[in-house]
Design goal:
Rossmann fold, 7 strands
Length: about 200
């Protein structure tokens, strides 16, 4: 049995931190996993910037409420879920993802949790497990599933390279150049056809 594992940000919805950076005018928050492969380093940096600007969960959630999913993302997911099981594997946080999952028709998502103080300050975060995407793909495989994975960033490469089939989607020129062996797509229809052939 197959399970398709998809990244969320950059694949189905715009990058939340970039949207927040644009809204607040804080360019330092534009850094994402496309730029910084070390997720712990990236999150500690983000939390430090938020503290410096006295920004918390409420302000981020207000921006997320205005974010729309990528054009064609829901239709792509609906079509995919008719032919196979799909899990979204994301390094985002449940406090960010919920309103976006509603817009996508409530697909299954495995993500992380923010630690938030009573005043709404983001004080830290709790990863579901180490190397969450790769660990999850390996766990699914240990249960007898074949995985097919797609994502756009450094933190997706583990699950892409360790699945029976893996694809880059809307990735950066650098990642595509560094990993020429991974097929890369820009359109949902092309990604759908590639996944369908891999089933």
């Amino acid at each position: 049995m197959n399970v398709v594992c998809l990244d969320m940000e950059g694949v189905l919805v715009p990058e939340i931190w970039i949207a927040f950076a644009n809204e607040t005018g804080i360019p330092e928050l534009k850094l994402t996993t496309r730029d910084e492969p070390d997720y712990d380093k990236l999150m500690k940096y983000r939390i430090k910037i938020l503290k410096e600007h006295n920004l918390g969960l409420k302000e981020i959630q207000a921006v997320i409420a205005k974010i729309d999913i990528m054009p064609g993302a829901k239709e792509f997911l609906d079509k995919l879920r008719k032919i196979t099981q799909v899990i979204i594997l994301s390094d985002t946080f449940e406090q960010f993802a919920t309103p976006l999952m509603e817009k996508l028709g409530w697909p299954t998502i495995f993500c992380n949790t923010l630690e938030v103080g009573e005043n709404g300050e983001i004080t830290g975060y709790k990863m579901r497990c180490e190397k969450s995407k790769l660990t999850t793909v390996k766990a699914l495989q240990s249960m007898g599933f074949d995985t097919i994975a797609s994502g756009d960033s450094f933190n997706d490469l583990g699950m892409i390279l360790n699945s029976k089939a893996g694809f880059l989607f809307k990735s950066t020129d650098k990642i595509k150049a560094d990993y020429p062996q991974i097929e890369a797509f820009e359109e949902y229809d092309d990604l759908f056809e590639a996944i369908k052939k891999s089933l």
